[in-house]
Amino acid sequence: MARPKKNKIKLTDDEVKSLKALLKKKDTNQNLSARCRILLNLDEDHLPALTYNQYMSACNVSRATIAKTVKLFASGGIDAALKINRNINSDHARRKVDGRTEN
To answer: pTM score, two decimals?
Structure first.
């Protein structure tokens, strides 16, 4: 017998609409779109609700990514799940000087 789910995803209709709208935008990055798809596909109120293993095999996403997204949603809601924390020193941080002004 499987263990009961600790964190469940139950989205409202407005949250589903906002996630789908976010997926349709062209400037949505890959991490954010993956989190949106995870929340939409694992939602128990809107069928079909997939299991972790089904979603892992269908979308090539690791179990850790799924678990982290679900945990963030359970603890802080949809805003916490979609917030991407970036380190100031990462390559994705905005740079004050680009290659044109360095020369």
So the answer is: 0.72
Q: Is 69 helix (H, G, I), strand (E, B) or coil?
A: helix
Q: Six-digit token pair at 94? A: 């905005």
Cβ neighbours of residue 23 under 8 Å, at least 6 residues apart? 33, 36, 37
SS3 label, residue 54: helix
* CA dihedral sign, ordered 34, 41, 18, 5: negative
Burial of 1 (0-12, 13-18, 19+ CB in 10 A): exposed
E strands within the chain? Answer: none
**C-alpha to C-alpha distances, 26 to 21, 31, 77, nearest whole angstrom:** 10, 13, 24
State pLDDT tens for residues 49-80: 777 788 787 778 888 888 888 888 888 888 88
Q: Identify the DSSP state of 7.
A: S
